[in-house]
Fold these 2 entries.
Entry 1:
Amino acid sequence: MALLLRAVTWGLLPWRSHCSSAPQRGLSKGFVEALEAVVGSPHVSTAAAVREHHGRDESMYRCHPPDAVVWPQNVDQVSRLAALCYSQGVAIIPFGTGTGLEGGVCALQGGVCVNLTHMDRIRELNPEDFSVVVEPGVTRKALNTHLRDCGLWFPVDPGADASLCGMAATGASGTNAVRYGTMRDNVINLEVVLPDGRLLHTAGQGRHFKKTAAGYNLTGLFVGSEGTLGLITSATLRLHPTPEATVAATCAFPSVQAAVDSTVQMLQAAVPVARIEFLDEVMMDACNRYSKLNCSVAPTLFLEFHGSEQALAEQLQRAEVITQHNRASHFSWAKEAEERSRLWTARHNAWYAFLALAPGFKGYSTDVCVPISKLPEILVHTKEKLKASGLTGAIVGHVGDGNFHCLLLVNPDDAEELQRVKTFAEELGRRALALRGTCTGEHGIGMGKRQLLQEEVGPVGLETMQQLKVMLDPRGLMNPGKVL
Amino acid sequence: MALLLRAVTWGLLPWRSHCSSAPQRGLSKGFVEALEAVVGSPHVSTAAAVREHHGRDESMYRCHPPDAVVWPQNVDQVSRLAALCYSQGVAIIPFGTGTGLEGGVCALQGGVCVNLTHMDRIRELNPEDFSVVVEPGVTRKALNTHLRDCGLWFPVDPGADASLCGMAATGASGTNAVRYGTMRDNVINLEVVLPDGRLLHTAGQGRHFKKTAAGYNLTGLFVGSEGTLGLITSATLRLHPTPEATVAATCAFPSVQAAVDSTVQMLQAAVPVARIEFLDEVMMDACNRYSKLNCSVAPTLFLEFHGSEQALAEQLQRAEVITQHNRASHFSWAKEAEERSRLWTARHNAWYAFLALAPGFKGYSTDVCVPISKLPEILVHTKEKLKASGLTGAIVGHVGDGNFHCLLLVNPDDAEELQRVKTFAEELGRRALALRGTCTGEHGIGMGKRQLLQEEVGPVGLETMQQLKVMLDPRGLMNPGKVL
C-alpha cells in the first residue's frame, strides 16, 4: 500500500486510458462562452474524449485532462485567450503534437489546453539566409517536405514527428545533434504570447540573423522553458544545406567501452559524423525482431555521414580505421536511400521494438547526459543496476553527446514494479549528477524530474529559476506543476 | 555649441586621456578600508592613474574612472566585495582586459572597478570531454598556448587577446564564428557572483556536458549580459580539435556584390569555410601599406579552410570554382604557417592599419549584422553614405555571418565631426534594423546603442529585459548605464 501511494505521488497510477478523477477547478459556463467568443464555438471542446486525448503525452504519466480544449486560428486569438485566462486565474497548457516524454501536457490543475496545431503556416522561407518562420502546427517532417526542392533542410530530429515550436519549447535534440546542434543552437527568434496576453518577439519582430549581441538572450530563455513562461506562436529556425550525399553504417563491438572509445576518437579526429548512435545488445535483439534486421546481437553503433562524395570516402575510411582499431566487426555500409532508410527507421522504431518485447506493458525512458569520458562507466553501471533491479531494460544513446536513454518495460497494473522503475530512474539521474552530468539531455524536466533539477542546479540556481518564473508568470498559470 | 552638447551627451567628449570631471559619488575612507579588509591593501587602489586606466576601453568613449580599483584573488573575495558594495549601494564594474569597443568598462556612476585578472588559473582541462574551466585572467591566447600539445583549441577569436570570461560577458565572436559559432555557442557553464554576493553556477556546480534540457537556460542569459547582471568568475568552455591542416587565401572581386555572392554560394554548397572576411578597397589599401602586403586594391575576401589534407584540397577546389564564377582575380593561397600568419596578422591589424591612415585621429567601429541576402544592399548603401558624409571610413566584415564593421576616422578635437560620426553610426544601425538585422553582431550594446536596442527589440522585449535586470540586480549596481 505504501508503494502504491508513492506511485500515485509520482503521478503514475492509473496511467492507462482512464483519466484522473482528482479534484478539478472546472470552468463556469460563462468562461467557456468567453472562450468561444474568442475562437468561435467549433474551436472549443469540453467533451471527455477530447479532454482525455489532451491530458497525456507519449510517456507513462497518467492522463490529467484539461477542463477545456481550444484551437486558436491565429496569434491574436492566442493573445486574447491568454489575457482571458490571466484575468480569471485559469491555468493554460500549450499543446502541439503531444509527443513529449515527460508529461509536459498533463493538466495538473485542469484549466485550458491551447491546441496550437490549427496555426500551421510556414510564414516565410528565406533560402539565401538559411532561415524559415513556422507556426506551431508545422511539424519537423512537414517542414522538410516543404524544403525538399530548395536544397535546405532542418536537421534536428527527435524521432517523433513533433511540432517545431513544441521542439523549441522542450529544447529537443535527437540523433543529428552531434553535428547540427540542438534546438538551442537552431532557434533564431521566437514569437511568444506572454501569460497576460502581451506579444513578445524574443529577438525583435521579424528579425533573423546569424548572430547578435543585442541585450539579454530572451530567445535562449524561452527555448526549453516547457510552456511554463508563455505560448510559442512562431519560431524562426536556422536551416542547413541538404547533404550532397549520405552514407549510413552499423558495426558491432565486443564491449560498451570499445563503442564509446570509437566515438571519442572519431570526435577527436574531427570526423564530422552526422549521427552516432549506440544500441546495446538487448536493443539490437529487439530491433532485429521488430524491423527484420540481421544485425549482430552486440553493442552496436549506428553511424551516418554527410558530405560530398569525396569527403564521404575519407570520413568512411577514417571511421573504419578507428572502429576496427577498437575491434569492431560486422561492418555494414548503406549508401542507397532505401537501405539507409531501413537502418534509420529501425533505429527510430527502437522504442516500439522494445515495447513489442512484452505486449501490454508500457515503457519509460530515462534521459541522462554526462561528460563523454564518463559514458562507459555509467553505461556499465546502468546495465549492472538493471540486472540487479529485475527490470527489463535496454539502452539507446546519442553517444556523441554523452546522452543515453535506458528504456524500461513496466506492467502498468503492478504498483511495486512502477515503484522500482521510479527508483531506478531517480538513482540513474543521481548517478549522472555525481558524474557532473545532467538529469535530462533532451526530454526536459516535465513532471517527474523536478527534485533532480533542484539537486542539479543547486539552491541559487533553483532560486534564480523560480524568480524567472515569477517574473514572467506572476500568477503561476502557465503549465503549472512542470519544471519547478 | 548645440553639436558640442550633443556630442557630450553621447559621452564622446573629451575622449582622449583626460578623465571626466563629472560629479562622482566618491567612497568614504571607511569603505575603502572595508575593501582592503576583503582583498588586502596592496590589491586596492584609488590612485588617479590607475583609476584612469580602468575608466576606458579601446573605443573612443571618454574615460569615466571608477572611484577605486580592486584586484580580488579568488571567488570568495569577489563574493564578499559584491556583498559589501550591495550593502552600501556602491556600483560595481567588472574589468577584464579592457579591450571592449562599446565603453563597457566606463564607470558612469563611479563606484568600484573589480579587476579580475589576478584570478588567472585554468582550473581544469578535460581533453576527452572537449572542455576547459578558466578564470577571468585567462586570455584567449593564453588558453590556446596552454592547449598547444593536447590537440585541442578554442576557436572564438575577436582579434584582441581578450579575457575569455570577458568574451563570455560581451557575447564576443569574430573571424571564426562562421564555422565554430560565437561565445553563445561555446560556453557550457558559468560561475557568477550575483550582485548581492551569492554564487550562481548557471548549469550547476562543476557540470559540463554537450547538451542539457534541465530548466531555464541561465548560461545563455549571462552570456552577453555585459557585466550588468553579475560578475563572471569562471567559464566552462567547449574546445574543438585542432585542424589537421589549414590553408588561407585572398582573392579580389570586381564588386561588393560579387564577393558576397561568392560567400553565399560557398555556404549553400556547404563548403565548411573556417573564416571568410570581407575588406573593401579602402581597407585593402591601408593593409597593403601597414602590413607590407601587395594585394589588389579592390573588394577582397580573406578565406581560411580547416581540415585534413584531402578535405582541404576539395574545399579549395570548390571555393576556387565559386569565386572564379564570380569573376574573382588575384588568387593567392597561403599554406605555410608563416605566410598564413602574415595574411591573418594583416587582417587582424586592419584596425591599426586604418588608424595609421591619419595619425592623431581616433577610430570608431560600427557593428551591424543583417540577413546575408541584405548584405550587398547595405554595404553599397554604407559606402554611398560614407561618401556623402565626408567622413573617412573603411569596411571589414565577417560576411559569412552578415556582420560587418564600418571603421570611421575622427578628429578627437572636432565636435562637429564627432557628431557626424554619431549620426552616421545611428543611421547605419537603423538601416540594419529596417533590413531585419541587429545593431550589434558582436561588440554589444554598451553605452552608445541603448536607443537602438529599444528600437530593435520593441517595447515588450525592452520591458522583459528591464524586468530581468531588476530581478537580478534590484539595486541597479552592476555596471550601471550599460545595455538598458
Entry 2:
Amino acid sequence: MPDRSTPSDDKPIDLPQPAVGRLSLYYRELHRLLESQQGGVNSQQLGKLVNVSPAVVRRDLSALGTIGRRGVGYDIARLIERIGDVLGSGMQWKVVLVGVGSLGDALLRYRGFERLGFQLSAAFDNAANRIGSTIAGVRVLDAALIESFLAAEPAELAILAVPAEFAADIADRLVGCKINGILNFAPTTLKLPPKVAVVNVDLASELQRLAFAIQTQK
Amino acid sequence: MPDRSTPSDDKPIDLPQPAVGRLSLYYRELHRLLESQQGGVNSQQLGKLVNVSPAVVRRDLSALGTIGRRGVGYDIARLIERIGDVLGSGMQWKVVLVGVGSLGDALLRYRGFERLGFQLSAAFDNAANRIGSTIAGVRVLDAALIESFLAAEPAELAILAVPAEFAADIADRLVGCKINGILNFAPTTLKLPPKVAVVNVDLASELQRLAFAIQTQK
C-alpha cells in the first residue's frame, strides 16, 4: 500500500474555499491519471498538473489524513476515493435545472456532472416550445410543476440558469421545496436563508477578472 | 458632488482576487441602480445588494480612492466610471471564442459581455456544419484560420470552450497569436507562459464546491 491514511470518519472536515477548489482539481486530474493506467503519483507530479507547488499538494492532502510515502507517493485509486468522500462525490446528488435557454441547454449537455455523482433528474422552463422536449436524456417540464415534481422526487441541488429578473422568485420557490444548495448562473445576488448554500458563477465577472489581470501585468 | 475621488491615474491598482470579484459585483448592481434612476447609494445599500458588510464595501471602494460622504453616500454614475476604469471595462476588449459546441454557442448568445466592453470579433470551430454560420451576430470560422484572422484583426482575450483534449494545443496557438488572456472552460489546467493571464471556470468543480458547502453545513 503506497500511502497511509487515517481512517475516514463522518465528521465533515473544515477546509477553506481555495483548498476545496484545489481538491476538486486534483480529483479531476487523478481520474485522468487513473484512465491512463497509472497506479501512483507524487506531490510534484500532481502539483505540476494543477499549477501549484508540491508543498501545497502535501498540505492539502495531509489535511484529509492522507500522507504520501517518500519516493513512492500516493496510490491514485485510494486518493480518488478519499477526496471523493470529502467533497461528497462518493454520494449521489439529485439536481434539477431551471431555465433551459442556451446556457441551460449547454449545462444539460455538459458531461462532467454525472461522473462526479450529480444526477440531473429534471429541467424546468416556461417556454411552450421547450416544455416536453428531452435534452441529453433529461426531460424539460413546465416550470409550474416545480413544486409537485420535487414533492414526488426530492432533490438536494438546483442549477439556476434563468434571466436575472426571474432568479429571486425561482430561488425562493426552490428553497420552499427543500433544495439545500443553488448553483446560480443568473447575474444577480440571491438573498436566501443561511441554511441554503449558494455558489455564484457570473460569466461576465470572470471575463472582467481576466481583463483586470492583464491590465495589472502590463 | 456627493463623493470625493482622488484623481484617477494610469498606474494599475494592486487588488487581491476577492476584492476584484466584489468590485465586479458592485459594478453590476450599480448599473442596475442607475437604470432605476437612482443618483446615490450608500455602503449599507450596496453591501446588502451583494451580501457583504458595509465596512467591506467602504474598504473596497476607498482602495480605489473613492470615499462616500456620510449621510449621502456615493454618486452612482461616478462610481461606475471609477470601477470601470480599474477593472478595464472602460476599455474595449477584442475577444475571440474557440469551440462552438453547446457551451460555446451559449457564450456567444450571452448578452452580459458587450455591456462590459468585451467585443466578440469571431468564433472558431473545426466542424463543417458550424463553420460559416453566424451566431448572435458573430461569424463562426474554420479553426484553421485562427492565425490568419488574428494577424489581420488582433484580439487581447480568448474564450476557450473546446473539449479538454484540444485545449492545450489551441491555447498554445492563441498565445502564438499574441493573445494576452484566456478564459478557460475546458476542464484541464493550461500550461502557459507567465505573461499570459488565465481564468479557469470548471462547471463540475463549481457544483462540487456547492456539494461540499452543503455537507459541512449539515
